[in-house]
Specification:
The protein has about 350 residues and is an alpha/beta fold. The protein contains 17 helices and nine strands. A nine-stranded mixed beta sheet has the order 1-9-8-7-6-5-2-3-4, sandwiched between helices. The radius of gyration is 22 Å and the shape is globular.
Length: about 350
């Protein structure tokens, strides 16, 4: 059984007198910084002068400095910027200020596990990975409820790395729900595999393929959208609430029978073999090298794939159909704003 920690396993006094430097103020960064501050910790935020997030952090009454200054002053340096940006920021702004007594903390193990960042041996290296988007993590913290998380220790130079990580987990609220002990290797490889085969790659490809199959067979795109995409949330919510068993209990017997008999036909042995190949590419580091190379070469292929996906018929149909759903409008507006900012 996995080792699980709760609030009784940690003490915030271990962070007393320490400065926590949060590098980044995106989805995870803002939640970590605000939760820690509200837990009584001394927090500074490291952002470049040109960052648009500076104003947001300052509006929340947080002290904002350059990443290098934050790393210099920080006892616990929390790296919460995108994976592909981390190595350069680490090399230029963080590494020069590391030394004995410092702790590097990550929310995802990618850079450490694949050795894009190699910290000096005298530094503690730990991970607290909340299993939630940052905005939800923050909302639940304010409500007095935490989100589960993962804990890993890669390097324990001080002999106190685990206790520092647990204190941090207490500060961000994760120990209210529970934190599971893992490793950087396990967290990184399982996270990438889940994203690629199910949560992002698998789901989006399955939905698009089913939509295309129905439209090519002569069904209206709007009907195909409802059946292949819109209703997915209803099923996922049931699984989220009570597992696959609860979903099957909640749907019709016809749907349950179709699940048992047709699901294995769609996800057949060839799909399972492909999943093993995807996992092997993750484990070997091939995917990580491919992704970092893509960024080093200007992200041309990535941006082309993004543009092509956004031009798919399912997206055009969805924009129109979601106008029927008043509860979805804030999300639609947010997505449009993000798309514009990424251009």
């Amino acid at each position: 059984m996995a080792k699980v920690y709760y609030e009784s396993d940690a003490d915030l006094k271990r962070l007393a007198g320490k400065t926590i430097a949060v590098i980044g103020y995106g989805s995870q960064g803002h939640a970590h910084a605000l939760n820690l501050r509200d837990s009584g910790q001394k927090v500074i935020v490291g952002l470049p002068a040109a960052s648009s997030s500076r104003a947001k952090a300052q509006a929340q009454k947080l002290e904002v400095v350059e990443p290098g200054e934050a790393a210099k002053r920080g006892d616990v340096i929390v790296i919460l910027i995108p994976d592909h940006i981390q190595p350069n920021v680490y090399k230029e702004s963080i590494a020069p200020h590391l030394g004995r007594g410092k702790t590097l903390l990550f929310a995802h193990g990618f850079s450490i596990h694949f050795k894009f960042i190699v910290p000096p041996p005298e530094v503690d290296v730990v991970m607290i990975a909340p299993k939630s988007p940052g905005h939800r993590m923050r909302e639940l913290f304010v409500e007095g409820v935490g989100v589960p998380g993962l804990l890993a220790v890669q390097q324990d130079a001080s002999g106190q790395a685990e206790q520092t990580a647990l204190s941090y987990a207490l500060g961000v609220g994760c120990l209210k729900a529970g934190v599971i002990r893992t490793t950087f290797k396990e967290e990184t490889e399982t996270d990438l595999f889940g994203e690629q085969t199910v949560l992002c790659g698998g789901v989006s490809a399955l939905v698009a393929s089913a939509f295309e199959t129905m439209v090519q067979a002569g069904y209206q795109p709007e009907i195909a959208y409802f059946e292949c995409l819109h209703e997915l949330k209803l099923i996922v919510d049931l699984i989220y609430q009570g597992g696959i068993k609860y979903m099957r209990y909640s749907v019709s017997d016809t749907a349950e029978y179709g699940d048992y008999t047709r699901g294995p036909v769609v996800i057949d042995q060839s799909v399972r073999d492909t999943m093993k190949k995807v996992l092997a590419d993750i484990q070997s580091g091939a995917f990580a090298k491919e992704w970092m190379k893509e960024n080093e070469e200007g992200r041309k292929r990535f941006l082309e794939m993004r543009a092509k996906a956004q031009d798919h018929l399912i997206e055009k149909v969805g924009i129109e159909l979601r106008k029927m759903m008043a509860w979805n409008r804030p999300a639609e507006e947010a997505t449009a704003a993000q798309a514009s900012a990424r251009q």
